[in-house]
Design goal:
heterodimer, A: 284 residues, mainly alpha, 12 helices, B: 307 residues, alpha/beta, four-stranded parallel sheet, 10 helices, globular
Chain lengths: 284, 307
């Protein structure tokens, strides 16, 4: 590649690159929580509910980029966050929380289809909401989200012990007299804010991929919060770089390329993890 | 056929070789948003330009998926031709912002907004997004009227000459050839469609009013209840009844529209579904604007002639 080419690559890809490196670390942290809580689809459900909120705004005549669309989407997603924190209980109950989450996802997805059937170009809008537009992300969008995510990261870091306890062993948390429902709501509300603001630039698919794939890889490869985060962040950066590179080199839609790179990363990590386990078995 | 393509290949090779020797670096990089605009630009620019279209021929020009190459292409463009009238509103502005190319910014000589000199149809008196994808500046599918294609060709030639004065004579000569061919062809097309004056047709989207107006056809219904809004069962039932009453016997669809919906309606109303891609390149062998119109007029005449 010549210097001129590199300049063009840099110009085209610098903000997508910034978005894919600066924003996902917080998603990875949330992903590790979600894997521990065994509520994998909560992020997909929240992302879908955020999309439902955006569609509601479109239906009310706002444009996708309007400030109002963001607030409507956020309000709707807070509703779902409240539902999820309320539906989690320590007592054995016949209906697992995963069922509520799955139902929320399906109904939100169907609601999106219903609403968009009344919006001009609905079919294409739907695809757009799924796949996002990370390629055309602007400096302002990345900057604003970086500030917001930094603040939220500080919030999660400050209360990390509490959140970690509730995620890992809710029974102990109850026994210690913590108001688990309140903390769960705070957890999900901040989660919703992350998802709503990230979904608007990256789409539902990429948001889900960043939340879950690095966290699953990390849980496969490492123990303990700090190590898992390190592994997750490393994998996120590698998958982002590979996906963006493939998108540029092969001229593929950017968001989908990064999602597939995440999938590939998971396959590689699974092979490594199973090889390690076999080795461990032989040694033992 | 074989021979023909061999000659074409040889010609292309000769042109390429001679271009490499002399004018290669000086060729204008022309980008058009859609293949139909690109075809006209290629006819006017001839050997002095390289033309690229952003949208694929089978892609809905209202919605194009952004890819890195689009930004690179726009970044290197000397001239950008867009349809305007909000056709590309959903996807072109962010790409342009990322491309940062002053040569093709609004009002620059390197920017041709094709709709600017067109007498637009269906300009709404009041604008409301809830009424569907109503373009506030009128219906943007204007190139299907050959006279509009001539206006756009002249518009393009003028800007080419401004950006690249040394080839101005070539652009003028190409424009004259284009116009002469168009005048002759238009008479031919009008003769072919003359027996069907007043024939009633149905389209999926409101994308054929200019063609209908030029050739005296009447679009009685669209399968979309409002532009851009997916067909609902109640609306389709209404369309079927209306089609039977008006004896509309053809439904025109584009590659990116739901052929299944059209087929359902056709079964119920005794009509035939006609694939009418509006972009050159969607069908093999259709590369120029004239090829495109030839194929459309031919298909329409054949379908309307059926008893």
């Amino acid at each position: 590649m010549s210097d001129v080419d590199l300049q063009v690559v840099w110009q085209v890809m610098k903000w997508p690159l910034a978005a894919c490196l600066l924003l996902p670390p917080l998603l990875v942290y949330l992903g590790v929580h979600v894997v521990q809580r065994e509520v994998i689809f909560v992020d997909l459900a929240l992302a879908q509910v955020a999309t439902l909120g955006t569609c509601l705004a479109l239906l009310l005549g706002y444009h996708f980029d309007d400030r109002a669309a963001f607030w409507i989407s956020l309000a709707v997603t807070f509703g779902a966050a409240a539902l999820f924190s309320w539906s989690r209980s320590t007592h054995e109950q016949p209906v697992p929380q995963e069922a509520i989450i799955g139902i929320t996802f399906v109904v939100a997805a169907a609601g999106v289809i219903l609403m968009l059937s009344r919006v001009a170009g609905g079919k294409e809008e739907l695809e757009h909401l799924l796949s996002g537009d990370i390629l055309n992300v602007t400096a302002i969008e990345v900057g604003r989200r970086s500030l917001l995510f930094a603040a939220l990261a500080a919030f999660y870091a400050f209360f990390h012990k509490r959140f970690a306890l509730i995620s890992a062993t809710p029974a102990t948390a109850y026994a210690q007299g913590l108001n688990v429902r309140l903390w769960d709501f705070l957890f999900y509300a901040a989660f919703a804010l992350v998802v709503v603001s990230f979904v608007r630039v990256a789409g539902v698919l990429l948001t889900f991929a960043y939340l879950i794939v690095p966290a699953v890889c990390a849980v496969m490869l490492a123990e303990g919060w700090m190590r898992r985060l390190m592994v997750g962040w490393g994998i996120t950066a590698a998958a982002s770089l590979a996906g963006l590179f493939a998108s540029y080199q092969l001229d593929l839609p950017t968001g989908a390329a990064v999602v597939c790179a995440c999938g590939l990363a998971l396959i590689i990590v699974s092979i490594i993890a199973s090889a390690r386990r076999r080795q461990g078995a032989v040694v033992a | 056929m074989m021979q023909h393509s061999m000659i074409k290949l040889a010609t292309a090779a000769v042109i390429a070789l001679s271009a490499m020797g002399t004018a290669f670096a000086a060729k204008l990089n022309v980008v058009a948003t859609t293949p139909d605009l690109a075809a006209i630009a290629a006819a006017i620019g001839g050997t002095a330009v390289n033309v690229k279209a952003l949208a694929k021929p089978t892609e809905d020009p209202h919605f194009v998926d952004a890819k890195p190459s689009h930004i690179v292409t726009l970044n290197r463009a000397d001239v950008l031709i867009d349809g305007g009238a909000e056709l590309e509103l959903g996807w072109l502005p962010p790409l342009l912002e990322s491309a940062r190319n002053a040569k093709i910014s609004a009002n620059a000589p390197g920017r041709v907004v094709a709709s600017q000199r067109i007498r637009m149809l269906e300009v709404p008196s009041s604008f409301d997004r809830s009424k569907g994808d109503v373009h506030s500046l009128g219906n943007p599918h204007f190139l299907l009227d050959p006279l509009n294609a001539k206006i756009v060709a002249a518009h393009i030639a003028e800007h080419f000459a401004k950006v690249d004065p040394k080839s101005a004579a070539l652009y003028q000569a190409n424009l004259r050839t284009f116009n002469a061919t168009m005048d002759a062809k238009l008479i031919e097309w009008q003769r072919t469609l003359a027996p069907f004056k007043g024939a009633k047709i149905v389209t999926y989207h409101r994308d054929f009013p200019y063609l209908a107006e030029r050739f005296g056809l009447e679009v009685v219904e669209t399968l979309e209840p409002k532009p851009g809004i997916a067909p609902s069962p109640a609306h389709l039932a209404r369309v079927i009844t209306a089609m039977k009453g008006a004896r509309a016997r053809v439904i025109l669809v584009q590659p990116y529209q739901s052929r299944k919906t059209a087929e359902t309606v056709a079964r119920q109303s005794g009509a035939t579904v006609l694939d009418m891609p509006q972009q050159p390149g969607a069908v093999k062998g259709v590369t120029t604007y004239f090829d495109l119109m030839d194929s459309m007029v031919g298909k329409l005449a054949a379908a309307l002639a059926k008893p």
